Automatic annotation (TrEMBL):
This is Cell wall protein. The lineage of its organism: Bacteria, Bacillati, Actinomycetota, Actinomycetes, Micrococcales. The chain crosses the membrane at residues 195-216. It comes from Microbacterium immunditiarum. Keywords: Membrane, Signal, Transmembrane, Transmembrane helix. Residues 1-24 form the signal peptide. Residues 26-55 are annotated as: Disordered.
Length: 222
């Protein structure tokens, strides 16, 4: 009889412990948490820009100039150059002008318009699209005449930016062209152009002939 009760007690104990064991087998311990790490998303570098840079045509004492102001904004040092160029084109012809080297991202100054020139005193003695030939100024297709027409321009470093550049228009105060080109060539000894001189000579001869005829008609007849 005692054996029966012992066997029953053992069976009951096994029944009570079985769910615990099964639960332990079904629910394993979670793995130890891994060390926490801070997530990192790299920032895209800011592109360099020439925003705010300008180049404009100006006239001073009949001389055409290009005044420029260049500012390079490059917070992440992406630009690979510090040399500044001004590029002018009409779609067919192109000229590239070296303006200088940036200093701390800045450059400003002015250069003569292509085809323009001045003498040692800074007085204009050449203009784009004009030539002094046979004692007078005449318009020509060469000497960068195309730069006075419909052009586009941009400033280039490593980025580039378009600028509103145009040949300076003539005003009463300043004319970036020869003044009175049809009579610009003068003979220093007479003060008369080569075109006017022959006309004056012919006129003088006609006047002399008229006076001679007048004198002959006035001469008393014998």
């Amino acid at each position: 009889m005692r054996k029966f009760f012992v066997a029953a007690a053992v069976s009951a104990s096994l029944l009570l412990l079985a769910p615990v064991g099964a639960s332990a087998a079904m629910d394993p311990e979670p793995p130890a948490p891994s060390p926490t790490s801070t997530s990192y998303t790299p920032d895209n570098p800011d592109e360099p820009t020439l925003a705010g840079s300008t180049a404009v045509g100006e006239c001073e004492r009949d001389v055409p100039w290009i005044s420029y102001s260049v500012t390079l904004t490059d917070p992440d040092n992406q630009s690979t150059s510090d040399e500044v160029y001004l590029v002018i084109t009409d779609g067919v012809n192109t000229i590239e002008i070296f303006l200088g080297t940036l200093v701390n991202g800045e450059l400003s100054g002015r250069v003569l318009w292509p085809g323009a020139s001045v003498d040692e005193n800074g007085i204009a003695d050449g203009w784009p699209g004009w030539a002094f030939e046979n004692g007078e100024w005449i318009e020509i297709d060469g000497n960068f005449a195309w730069t006075r027409g419909d052009i586009t321009a941009f400033i280039r470093v490593n980025p580039e930016v378009a600028v509103a550049l145009a040949y300076p228009p003539a005003t009463p105060e300043c004319n970036a062209n020869p003044r009175n080109p049809s009579t610009a060539g003068f003979l220093s000894s007479t003060g008369m152009s080569q075109l006017v001189l022959p006309t004056a000579i012919i006129g003088g001869l006609v006047l002399a002939a008229g006076l001679s005829l007048f004198v002959l008609r006035r001469r008393p007849r014998n």
